[in-house]
Amino acid sequence: MIMVKPAMPYLDVIAAARDRFDLPLAAYQVSGEYAMIEAAARNNWIDRDRVMMESLVSIRRAGASIILTYFAKDAAKLLA
Q1: Domain ranges of the chain
Q2: What angle in degrees, to the nearest 10, is found between the helix axes of 48-62 and 72-79?
Q3: pLDDT of 16-72, one tens digit each?
Q4: Cα gap 72→60, rounded to integer Å
Q5: Closest to 29 in 3D by CA, of 53, 4, 46, 47
Q6: Which residues pair with 67 in a beta bridge?
Q7: For residues 11 and 8, what is the distance between their CA atoms, to the nearest angstrom?
Q8: pTM, entire model
């Protein structure tokens, strides 16, 4: 497995790793990325669920087959 950390600033690295390696590719959405979204949502600057899902979708679209995130339970509830 290859892991890219942090995920959001390195979407290009995730895409390049996906093109180069035929291994499971994990991306770790670090606590700072989580905290940024949570803080903006608390200030009513963003729609938390929409931005959370968009961040996860962007990581997936970049090529990650595994996403480690503090949003795991909340995302799973929205996907159910």
Answers
A1: 2-74
A2: 90
A3: 999 999 999 999 999 999 999 999 999 999 999 999 999 999 999 999 999 999 999
A4: 14
A5: 4
A6: 27
A7: 6
A8: 0.93
